[in-house]
Amino acid sequence: MVFDNALVREMAAQHDFGNPFDATKIDNSAELPEPLRAADYFLIHLGKGRHRFVKGIQHGYHAFEPILAQETFQ
Question: CB–CB of 40/55 below 8 Å?
């Protein structure tokens, strides 16, 4: 599903969501709302005020490997 900023503003107003564009900026998978996570979707920005839901959370976020003690310095 592709949607634009006008729909984001409309939905945010209907649900008393503060900054409507915070809803489209999800920096890591832990911040995904449970319904999106359960359906295995994440958001991408297409540019020019358009966004899309994409199936396959594993394709949208990287699971970082642990940093071992011997790989750090002080």
Answer: yes
Integer Cα distance of 57 and 69 in angstroms: 29
Give me the count of residues in the chain.
74
Closest alpha carbon to 3 in 60, 54, 40, 37 = 54
Mean of pLDDT values over 9-34: 90
Beta bridge partners of 51: 3, 45
Tokens (6 digits) for 34:
């449970």
Structural domain spans, the chain: 2-60
On the question of pLDDT at 39 being above 90, the answer is: yes
pLDDT at 20 (0 to 100): 87
Query: How does residue 21 score in pLDDT terms, banded at 50, 70 and 90?
Result: confident
CA 36, CA 52: separation in Å to the nearest integer? 13
The secondary element (H helix, E strand) that includes residue 7 is helix 5-14
